[in-house]
Amino acid sequence: MPEAFYKYMTYSTAKIVLENQTLRWSTPATLNDPYDIQFDLSINFDRNAVLQNALEKLWKVFTGELIGHPKNQMSVAINILRPHIQGISKQHFIKKMDEGIKKSFAALDKNIHQTHQATREHLSTSKILCLTDSPTNQLMWAYYADSNKGVVLRFQNEPGADSPYQMAHKMSYTPDIPMLFEENELSDFLAGLITFDTTKRINTLIYTKSDAWKHENEWRIFAGDGRNKHAPHEDRKFGTRELTGAVFGCRMPIEQKMALSSILRHFYPHAEILQAAPANHSFQLELSPINAV
Prior knowledge:
Layout: E1 5-9, H1 11-20, E2 22-26, H2 47-63, H3 73-81, H4 90-123, E3 128-132, H5 138-144, E4 151-155, E5 169-170, E6 172-174, H6 183-190, H7 198-206, E7 208-210, E8 218-222, E9 233-237, E10 243-248, H8 254-267, E11 272-278, E12 285-289
Parallel strand pairs: 6-7, 10-11
Antiparallel strand pairs: 1-4, 2-9, 3-8, 4-10, 5-8, 11-12
């Protein structure tokens, strides 16, 4: 967990944020990535391999070599059937179970579109706050802070307060859409060894993005539906002492620096004010304190 989180923004946005003491929590439709929390987990797995693995594991559950999960329906069914089919051969058992698992595949294919649609709709009202872990990310300065004419605000947990930053999760970046089930996990589920972990799937949807966005080093805070489920966004108050610093872009005009400095010193006198500048001997940005503007 980073010591601090950063929010890149334009001068005009920073002025609103500082004067109103609010940060905007967004819904997926308002974000610049059309896949954000609105993609379908893949079911492109090797069905024959999953089938064979599930049948082998299911036999071991039946014989007691493996212990089924008490809340898995297959495990419950095996426990009920066991006294009535004692002495059944492995070959006969697997032949009987083969048909049931294939029916599970058919049910998955039949219902998956409806499941995906319902999940997208459910998550479409999610409210999230997107942050990052560095104030010197040059691509972020270019994309979100008006080509270095904007500002980066620094936020930290306020001691003794219920600050939200402790709930931040680091985003995962991947070239491919994640699987609904990994093959080994799916065979475990079909064999009655585990239950379907809905929370894991929801978290994958919330905290996964294409690796095209990995330069953002995003940390995300998820707030469910927020206070107003159907609002496209929510501007929420943050604690005065949660804002611990501001970094002015290396191209920010002097009059805008003066305006933001005045607001900061009035409402956030504890906050550190920093200036970003290109380093002399590397393609990096350097930060230095500003005492007066």
